[in-house]
Q: What sequence folds into this?
């Protein structure tokens, strides 16, 4: 066991996955073909949203969301420091200002109490939106955030990269899937190899807003539309002759967009992976339960992800003393745990914008102690026991 590498995350590629990718490679379309729409429709159905737009990666998804919501120079948007940098960077891409707010140390999520205090401390209109993150797979209570956002006229982008299949229970006792569009204006997902659904790279935006959906479709492909109902120029201009209809070749670039498309073979892989997403999610929850039971009551555990309804468990995190020593000890035994995340506000780029140490005590304390343990559906029981035993062994308990 000591010689086998156990990473914190790993993709699971089956023969069925390989077969559908080969079929896509042999088809007439490598990009802009039918597999993309099939994936979008299947994913929208999976999360319960009206619309889904597949894109090249999760960062592209965030960027397009910010563009679709007209983020511009000086617009202030609130998000958490405990996330991958892209959650904040998408606002900077558009010239906006990122305003960090601290986490709840019990959930690791953006603390709505602190966000509310931030909003109350400034005149209405100061902030444009909020980007809450379903960090580690634990869903944000978007019902509460929607109420707060409506009070202050804010939009919401739900960063659900960690939480496909996750859900929270609303005040009516109903399950609200991450990304279903009932409370957030837009939601985004990632299909990086360590995520629940792997496309190599890839992302998805979901929404229930038809106007945002149509705008995203254009922004994804250079700002171009081939929809006659949206054309601005006349048919005669389009054809170069006196004509009452548009020629087959015609298209219009109506806004400045990007090439953020997903390929057909990636989409085929995504659809195949989506077909067994629930099985993977079930296995992740079993692994989480095993960790929670193994570490419950241990003196070296300062905090852990625990077991909660609706958690999607992209990550399982424990907080410990001597984190660096444990990290190195596990690596020595070929267990490649990881740290999620270095607080965004302490990255040199954001420090140059004025953020500094001690701005967010909960986030910074969390970072000093957190370590993400191996969490992926193909992690075997023996491998998980090995990881647990090495941690217990390190602390001498």
A:
């Amino acid at each position: 066991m000591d010689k086998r590498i156990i990473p914190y995350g790993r993709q699971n590629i089956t023969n069925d996955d390989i077969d559908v990718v080969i079929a896509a490679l042999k088809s007439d379309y490598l990009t802009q073909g039918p597999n993309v729409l099939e994936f979008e429709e299947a994913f929208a159905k999976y999360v319960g949203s009206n619309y889904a737009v597949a894109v090249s990666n999760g960062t592209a998804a965030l960027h397009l969301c910010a563009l679709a919501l007209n983020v511009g120079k000086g617009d202030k948007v609130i998000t958490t420091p405990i996330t991958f940098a892209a959650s904040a960077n998408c606002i900077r891409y558009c010239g906006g200002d990122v305003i960090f707010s601290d986490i709840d140390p019990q959930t690791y999520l953006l603390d709505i109490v602190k966000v509310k205090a931030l909003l109350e401390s400034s005149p209405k209109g100061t902030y444009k939106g909020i980007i809450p993150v379903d960090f580690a797979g634990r869903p944000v209570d978007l019902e509460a955030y929607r109420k707060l956002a409506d009070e202050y006229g804010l939009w919401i982008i739900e960063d659900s990269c960690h939480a496909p299949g996750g859900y929270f229970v609303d005040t009516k006792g109903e399950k609200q899937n991450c990304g279903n569009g009932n409370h957030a204006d837009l939601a985004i997902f990632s299909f990086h190899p360590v995520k629940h659904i792997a496309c190599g790279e890839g992302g998805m935006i979901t929404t229930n807003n038809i106007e945002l959906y149509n705008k995203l479709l254009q922004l994804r492909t250079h700002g171009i539309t081939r929809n006659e109902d949206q054309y601005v120029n006349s048919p005669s201009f389009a054809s170069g002759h006196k004509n009452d209809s548009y020629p087959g070749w015609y298209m219009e670039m109506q806004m400045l967009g990007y090439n953020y498309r997903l390929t057909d073979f990636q989409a085929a892989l995504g659809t195949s992976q989506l077909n067994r997403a629930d099985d993977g999610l079930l296995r992740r929850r079993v692994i989480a339960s095993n960790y929670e039971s193994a570490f419950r009551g241990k003196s070296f555990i300062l905090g852990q992800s625990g077991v909660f309804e609706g958690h999607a468990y992209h990550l399982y995190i424990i907080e410990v003393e001597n984190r660096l020593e444990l990290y190195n000890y596990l690596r020595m035994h070929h267990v490649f745990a990881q740290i999620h995340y270095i607080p965004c506000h302490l990255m040199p780029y954001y420090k140059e914008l004025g953020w500094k140490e001690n701005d967010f005590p909960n986030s910074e304390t969390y970072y000093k102690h957190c370590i993400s343990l191996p969490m992926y559906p193909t992690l075997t029981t023996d491998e998980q026991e090995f990881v647990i035993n090495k941690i217990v062994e390190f602390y001498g308990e």
The first strand starts at residue 6 and ends at 7.
